[in-house]
Amino acid sequence: MKVLIIDNYDSFTYNLYQFIGEILTTEKNRGGLADFEILVKRNNQIDFQAIEAMAPDRIIISPGPGSPDDPRYFGVCADVIERLGKTTPLLGVCLGMQGIVHVFGGKVVKAPLPMHGKISPINHNNHSVFNGVPDQLEVMRYHSLIADAATLPDCLEVTATVGALGADKFEQRDQWQTVGEFELMGVKHRDYPIHGIQFHPESFATEGGKELIANFLFA
């Protein structure tokens, strides 16, 4: 398995690298994986053609500073989401999730409160990357921007939230304005193998982080 991490100049990228390495090593030792390679490339030091030629089996778009609508911060990532995400399983983390929403037409806005080093319990749908992960698990957040629920494109479904919107209403968009305050913590494309999570799965303070990443890697 070849895993490509696109680094958006974030201090947590190599924590994510180590985290994924531990998961893949465990799977290899169990005999479920022949071999693996994890590559890290910065978002402005590799172009789309080189990534395409690399033919990764999985792509992870890292957290990072700035906004996904600014190429200075997001580099090649928008192209990768739009073009490779149709066929190659892709996970966007934090800025990476915001980039997924942006690429498909949603807005990214300032969060009501900056969440840097804050822990929150989340609601999730228990499907795809959240399969088998306990509900109301606590996750570590480092962000001051969020995906705007009001402009979430129809091609993206909600997989996780923090706040008043429970999983039973994720698909009932006409009721979102009546449930109370909430923020998007996870999305998934309805047709492509594209997933996004707003929180940091690799943090020691995130419950179920390894199960979540394993779900993405081995689905």
TrEMBL record:
Decide whether keyword Chloroplast is in the record: no
Q: Which GO terms describe its cellular component?
A: cytosol
Please give the biological process terms from Gene Ontology that the record holds.
L-tryptophan biosynthetic process
One MF term from GO for this chain?
anthranilate synthase activity
The alphabetical list of record keywords is:
Glutamine amidotransferase
Annotated InterPro entries: Anth_synth/Amidotransfase (IPR050472), Class_I_gatase-like (IPR029062), GATASE (IPR017926), TrpG/PapA_dom (IPR006221)
Q: Glutamine amidotransferase domain spans which residues? A: 4-218
- Gene3D superfamilies from the xrefs? 3.40.50.880
Q: Pfam families of this UniProt entry? A: GATase (PF00117)
| NCBIfam families per the UniProt record, alphabetical | trpG_papA (TIGR00566)
| Protein's UniProt name | Aminodeoxychorismate/anthranilate synthase component II
Name the species this protein comes from: Vreelandella andesensis
